[in-house]
Design brief:
mainly alpha
C-alpha cells in the first residue's frame, strides 16, 4: 500500500477541482491524506514549512495535497485485482 502515494506524477484530470489538483473525490483525498500522514509519522520530511508543535501530521498531509506537492498515480482496477 505504500506505493499509492508518490508513485509517479499527477495525472491531469478535467474533473478535478483546482483547489485539490488531481483529486477526483473526497474518498480519494482521505486515502491519500492517510497514507501521507502515516509517512510523516514514520519520519518522512514534510514538503512545507511546519511548526511540529502546532500542526499535526494530518493537517500537514492535507496541505501538501492541496498545494499539489504529493505526486501520485491512481491504480487501475486491473492492477488491484492482480495484487489481491
Amino acid at each position: 500500500m505504500a506505493g499509492i502515494v508518490e508513485v509517479s506524477s499527477n495525472i491531469p484530470d478535467k474533473t478535478s477541482s483546482p483547489q485539490w489538483p488531481g483529486i477526483v473525490s473526497r474518498f480519494q483525498l482521505v486515502i491519500l491524506a492517510a497514507h501521507r500522514s502515516k509517512q510523516l509519522l514514520q519520519g518522512a520530511q514534510p514538503r512545507i514549512v511546519v511548526d511540529r508543535l502546532k500542526q499535526r501530521n494530518t493537517t500537514v498531509a492535507l496541505e501538501e495535497l492541496k498545494r499539489g506537492l504529493i505526486l501520485f498515480k491512481p491504480i487501475a482496477v486491473e492492477e488491484v485485482e492482480t495484487v489481491a
